[in-house]
């Protein structure tokens, strides 16, 4: 696979096609902002309709809509992108390609094939690994030491299209889904801009994915959020990191739910039962896991409360040594 051009945003090679941008959450905002910053001709920004949010359940705009309005770009919010009216509107814009980042709906064949340069997508994994809705979380849960961003030419499958460019990054021991999300969003924005300019200039060669190397990244299920203290300390820490900051892995203490954040395995050999509170140390709360090791929890959140660093949390909440988390 050819690497994207490493020259900067002022390079003469960065001539972008007229495009339609589709995206919805925070992850998509850096790519939209970077394209606008570099002078791309963005004919329209397509995002999901305003959805109820917060305690009042009032309709709230998506992060992409907020960014697009700030940038002075036209916004379109169809309920279903497959609706003939939506398809007709996008095809009428005289755009050369679609750029997608976490839009949230599968595109119909008419849109995938209706633009001369196709539909380019930012995906936060090293495709074909982690195809699906939760690639960042799954990489962390599985203890991967490396991840990255792929720019893919979309087809009708779930993240199965040919790849135009890839950039790899190491996963640090302290990384969470939140820190990795932000790093990959920024990396994806840069890589998309370079790749789109190359693709427009005919200097990018699509590489088919090897389906034999594929692994899925399905959405996180409710049953995966509760901590199983009988697992090895490294696996428990990986689970907590993968769900930090949202939705937050949880355990229970004396019948009440307790969310856990900022976790890492301790090298201490311990003799406690799985889930047994071992005590407080300078960096957090030590809890026994199922392999004779401990997990260090750096941040906790009680029911209906805000998350606090472990030392601050423990000043107002009794978690004595010997108590059992379940």
UniProtKB/TrEMBL annotation:
UniProt superkingdom: Bacteria
Top enzyme category: transferase
The EC number(s) this enzyme carries: 2.1.2.9
Residues of the Formyl transferase N-terminal domain: 18-195
Pfam short name (any one): Formyl_trans_C
Catalysed reaction equations from the record: L-methionyl-tRNA(fMet) + (6R)-10-formyltetrahydrofolate = N-formyl-L-methionyl-tRNA(fMet) + (6S)-5,6,7,8-tetrahydrofolate + H(+)
TM region positions: none
SUPFAM superfamilies the record matches: FMT C-terminal domain-like, Formyltransferase
Residues binding (6S)-5,6,7,8-tetrahydrofolate, per UniProt: 125-128
UniProt keyword terms in alphabetical order: Protein biosynthesis, Transferase
Ranges of residues in domain Formyl transferase C-terminal: 220-317
Cellular component terms (Gene Ontology): cytosol
GO MF annotations, alphabetized: methionyl-tRNA formyltransferase activity
Function of the molecule: Attaches a formyl group to the free amino group of methionyl-tRNA(fMet). The formyl group appears to play a dual role in the initiator identity of N-formylmethionyl-tRNA by promoting its recognition by IF2 and preventing the misappropriation of this tRNA by the elongation apparatus.
Assigned protein family: Belongs to the Fmt family.
Name the record gives this protein: Methionyl-tRNA formyltransferase
